[in-house]
Amino acid sequence: MFGNYLETFCKGLRFLLGALMGALAIPVAMQVISRYTGLIPTFLWTEELATFLFIWIVMVGSVVAVWDGTHFDVRVTRDAMTPFMRLLQDGIVHVAIMIFGALFLIYGIEYAEFGGKQRSVMMRANLMITHISVPIAGGLWLLFSGYRLFETVAQFRSRNGMQS
After folding, report:
1. How far is CA 82 from CA 7, 79, 159, 161, 163, in A?
2. Residue 154, Cβ neighbours under 10 Å: how many?
3. Sign of the C-alpha dihedral, residues 14, 20, 22, 25?
4. Quick check: is 164 in a domain?
5. 17 to each of 32, 78, 125, how far by Cα in Å?
6. Fewer CB near the terminus (10 Å): N or C of the chain?
7. Could you read off the pLDDT of 73-103 as tens digits, one per residue?
8. What proportion of the chain, given as a percentage, has pLDDT over 90?
9. Domain count for the chain
10. Which segments of the chain are extended strands (E)?
11. Which residue segment(s) compose the domain that 42 sits in?
12. φ, ψ at 126 (rounded to 5°)
Protein backbone atom coordinates (compact mmCIF):
# COMPACT_ATOMS: atom_id res chain seq x y z
CA MET A 1 0.00 0.00 0.00
CA PHE A 2 2.70 2.48 1.02
CA GLY A 3 4.71 1.38 -2.01
CA ASN A 4 1.84 2.47 -4.26
CA TYR A 5 1.95 5.94 -2.75
CA LEU A 6 5.70 6.10 -3.26
CA GLU A 7 5.35 4.89 -6.86
CA THR A 8 2.73 7.57 -7.54
CA PHE A 9 4.99 10.18 -5.95
CA CYS A 10 7.88 8.98 -8.12
CA LYS A 11 5.69 9.28 -11.23
CA GLY A 12 5.16 12.91 -10.22
CA LEU A 13 8.92 13.31 -9.88
CA ARG A 14 9.37 11.88 -13.37
CA PHE A 15 6.87 14.43 -14.70
CA LEU A 16 8.74 17.19 -12.83
CA LEU A 17 11.99 15.94 -14.32
CA GLY A 18 10.54 16.18 -17.82
CA ALA A 19 9.23 19.68 -17.13
CA LEU A 20 12.62 20.78 -15.81
CA MET A 21 14.33 19.36 -18.91
CA GLY A 22 11.89 21.25 -21.12
CA ALA A 23 12.43 24.42 -19.12
CA LEU A 24 16.21 24.00 -19.39
CA ALA A 25 15.95 24.04 -23.18
CA ILE A 26 14.67 27.64 -23.13
CA PRO A 27 17.63 29.47 -21.51
CA VAL A 28 20.12 27.21 -23.28
CA ALA A 29 18.48 27.96 -26.64
CA MET A 30 18.53 31.67 -25.83
CA GLN A 31 22.26 31.43 -25.07
CA VAL A 32 23.02 29.60 -28.30
CA ILE A 33 20.91 31.91 -30.46
CA SER A 34 22.39 35.05 -28.93
CA ARG A 35 25.94 33.76 -29.18
CA TYR A 36 25.91 32.53 -32.75
CA THR A 37 23.30 34.60 -34.55
CA GLY A 38 22.95 37.93 -32.82
CA LEU A 39 19.17 37.78 -33.34
CA ILE A 40 18.59 38.42 -29.65
CA PRO A 41 20.79 40.23 -27.16
CA THR A 42 22.98 38.25 -24.76
CA PHE A 43 21.21 37.83 -21.44
CA LEU A 44 23.54 36.89 -18.60
CA TRP A 45 20.72 35.62 -16.40
CA THR A 46 20.11 32.70 -18.77
CA GLU A 47 23.34 31.02 -17.66
CA GLU A 48 22.33 31.26 -14.01
CA LEU A 49 18.85 29.95 -14.73
CA ALA A 50 20.30 27.05 -16.70
CA THR A 51 22.57 26.24 -13.75
CA PHE A 52 19.67 26.34 -11.29
CA LEU A 53 17.58 24.06 -13.48
CA PHE A 54 20.47 21.68 -14.05
CA ILE A 55 21.09 21.30 -10.30
CA TRP A 56 17.44 20.41 -9.75
CA ILE A 57 17.51 17.98 -12.69
CA VAL A 58 20.50 16.18 -11.18
CA MET A 59 18.95 15.95 -7.72
CA VAL A 60 15.46 14.91 -8.86
CA GLY A 61 17.03 12.46 -11.32
CA SER A 62 19.09 10.89 -8.55
CA VAL A 63 15.96 10.43 -6.44
CA VAL A 64 14.14 8.72 -9.32
CA ALA A 65 17.20 6.55 -9.95
CA VAL A 66 17.27 5.46 -6.30
CA TRP A 67 13.61 4.48 -6.52
CA ASP A 68 14.22 2.57 -9.76
CA GLY A 69 17.32 0.89 -8.34
CA THR A 70 19.54 2.24 -11.11
CA HIS A 71 21.77 4.53 -9.08
CA PHE A 72 24.58 4.00 -6.56
CA ASP A 73 24.68 0.25 -7.22
CA VAL A 74 28.08 -0.88 -8.40
CA ARG A 75 28.84 -4.57 -8.13
CA VAL A 76 32.39 -5.36 -7.10
CA THR A 77 31.61 -9.04 -6.59
CA ARG A 78 29.73 -11.62 -8.59
CA ASP A 79 25.96 -11.74 -8.14
CA ALA A 80 25.14 -13.87 -5.13
CA MET A 81 24.05 -17.44 -5.71
CA THR A 82 22.12 -17.98 -2.47
CA PRO A 83 19.11 -15.96 -1.31
CA PHE A 84 20.86 -14.95 1.91
CA MET A 85 23.92 -13.65 0.09
CA ARG A 86 21.64 -11.77 -2.35
CA LEU A 87 19.88 -10.25 0.67
CA LEU A 88 23.26 -9.27 2.07
CA GLN A 89 24.43 -7.72 -1.22
CA ASP A 90 21.24 -5.74 -1.76
CA GLY A 91 21.00 -4.84 1.91
CA ILE A 92 24.50 -3.35 1.93
CA VAL A 93 23.62 -1.19 -1.08
CA HIS A 94 20.37 0.03 0.49
CA VAL A 95 22.04 0.77 3.83
CA ALA A 96 24.87 2.65 2.10
CA ILE A 97 22.34 4.80 0.22
CA MET A 98 20.48 5.39 3.48
CA ILE A 99 23.69 6.53 5.17
CA PHE A 100 24.46 8.97 2.36
CA GLY A 101 20.83 10.09 2.37
CA ALA A 102 21.02 10.81 6.09
CA LEU A 103 24.29 12.73 5.62
CA PHE A 104 22.82 14.78 2.77
CA LEU A 105 19.70 15.46 4.84
CA ILE A 106 21.49 16.44 8.06
CA TYR A 107 24.30 18.49 6.56
CA GLY A 108 22.13 19.67 3.69
CA ILE A 109 19.91 21.60 6.07
CA GLU A 110 22.87 23.70 7.18
CA TYR A 111 23.94 24.04 3.55
CA ALA A 112 20.45 25.26 2.59
CA GLU A 113 20.48 27.79 5.44
CA PHE A 114 23.84 29.02 4.16
CA GLY A 115 22.36 29.38 0.66
CA GLY A 116 19.44 31.30 2.13
CA LYS A 117 21.83 34.05 3.15
CA GLN A 118 23.15 34.56 -0.37
CA ARG A 119 21.86 35.94 -3.66
CA SER A 120 22.85 35.02 -7.19
CA VAL A 121 24.87 37.57 -9.12
CA MET A 122 22.69 38.19 -12.18
CA MET A 123 19.17 37.22 -11.19
CA ARG A 124 19.52 38.30 -7.55
CA ALA A 125 17.65 35.12 -6.61
CA ASN A 126 18.01 33.64 -3.17
CA LEU A 127 20.40 30.69 -3.50
CA MET A 128 18.27 28.56 -1.23
CA ILE A 129 16.44 27.79 -4.49
CA THR A 130 19.23 25.40 -5.38
CA HIS A 131 20.73 24.62 -1.98
CA ILE A 132 17.44 23.20 -0.66
CA SER A 133 17.63 20.44 -3.27
CA VAL A 134 20.40 18.72 -1.27
CA PRO A 135 18.46 17.93 1.91
CA ILE A 136 15.29 17.17 -0.07
CA ALA A 137 17.17 14.64 -2.20
CA GLY A 138 18.87 13.17 0.87
CA GLY A 139 15.56 12.72 2.66
CA LEU A 140 14.00 11.05 -0.35
CA TRP A 141 17.04 8.77 -0.82
CA LEU A 142 16.65 7.77 2.82
CA LEU A 143 12.91 7.13 2.44
CA PHE A 144 13.14 5.26 -0.86
CA SER A 145 16.12 3.11 0.17
CA GLY A 146 14.51 2.33 3.51
CA TYR A 147 11.42 1.14 1.71
CA ARG A 148 13.48 -0.89 -0.77
CA LEU A 149 15.39 -2.47 2.15
CA PHE A 150 12.08 -3.36 3.77
CA GLU A 151 10.92 -4.92 0.48
CA THR A 152 14.16 -6.87 0.09
CA VAL A 153 13.91 -8.32 3.60
CA ALA A 154 10.20 -9.13 3.15
CA GLN A 155 10.94 -10.86 -0.16
CA PHE A 156 13.72 -12.91 1.44
CA ARG A 157 11.46 -13.90 4.32
CA SER A 158 8.60 -14.94 2.06
CA ARG A 159 10.87 -17.02 -0.18
CA ASN A 160 12.31 -18.83 2.79
CA GLY A 161 8.99 -19.53 4.50
CA MET A 162 9.63 -17.20 7.44
CA GLN A 163 6.73 -15.47 9.15
CA SER A 164 6.93 -11.72 9.83
Report:
1. 29, 9, 12, 15, 19
2. 12
3. negative
4. no
5. 22, 33, 21
6. N
7. 667 778 888 889 889 988 999 999 999 999 9
8. 70
9. 1
10. none
11. 2-159
12. -65, 130
